Amino acid sequence: MTLPLAVGVMLPRDIGPDEVLPFARRADALGFDELWVVEDLGFRGGIAQAAAVLATTSRLRVGIGVLPSAVRNAAFAAMEIATLAQLFPGRIDVGIGHGMPDWMQSVGARTPRPLRLLEEQLEAVSALLRGQAVDTSASGDHVRLEAAQLDASAVPTTPPPLLAGVRGPRSLALSGRVADGTVLAEPCTPEYVREAITRIAAVRPHRVVTYNVAHVHDDEAAALAQVRPALEWIGEPDWAPHLRPLPFGEEFAALRSQCASRAEFARRMPGEWVARLALAGTPTQVRTRLDELAAAGATSAVLIPTGPDPLGSLDSLARVL
After folding, report:
1. What one-character DSSP code corresponds to residue 187?
2. CATH number where 180 lies
3. Contact 190, 301 (CB under 8 A)
4. Is residue 135 part of a domain?
5. Domain contains 18
6. What is the span of the domain harbouring residue 52?
7. Contact criterion met (CB below 8 Å) for 23 and 314
8. Which letter, b or e, does each residue of 183-208 get, where b requires 16 or more Cβ atoms within 10 Å of its Cβ?
9. Is residue 92 situated within a structural domain?
């Protein structure tokens, strides 16, 4: 790659429990820069996964992407994050987001003002991690703290970066104001990254982490066939920001509306769209795509393994390093 770009890999949310730590150790040994864990409802907790992965590896940065602000108390979230930062200094990044609306609804945590909640959460957790006393009893709409503060012994020497896991235009602008970076969920094309960065309009140095489903194979057609099923959900209303900047955005939306099922849509999607919406192909082709992401402004590219053998896919993905 010709531009600075950290290349990471995602720990699949449904990987078997006996494979979690071997996956992390293998990613570390292969030379990936980062490993990201997810906190999806019904699977595994982000903090617990991050702690286990950090303890079993020696070099990887570990990202949590993302903790839903609606279900985590700001003070207790800061305690958990500070603990990881003290035990594994310089190796943890934390994403905080709105949480998927359906998930928040199902656990009784959906709020009519998710933007305000995320802003209060990011500001409060950031201040607590810096050792400040936080009192929002008079000003907070959602985060209500009364002189909350971490004990001096619990404050990390260097607070870890807090990134906003968001995609809507107002949420991206919020990230640029109050967060240290932004986690952009897949699909992240260069066009989408550039538009997102424009909307972020960061006021200080700002990381941009991109997620993309990925597969590396000497046969491009085999690689595209591998990632195609993982793209079947793209095109639903929440993903409009990802599609709008694409030259085939309107055609994409039209095809999605014509299909009776996600499977039909994935099957009918032209190969050139699949190639643009994933990091899939030969090692040279995928390196070229990573260069394009870096040129668009991404600072980290997280590869999401596809197929039935996540652990086995690591070696093929590492061919782009």
Report:
1. P
2. 3.20.20.30
3. no
4. yes
5. yes
6. 6-220+278-320
7. yes
8. bbbbbbbbbbbebbbebbebeeebbb
9. yes
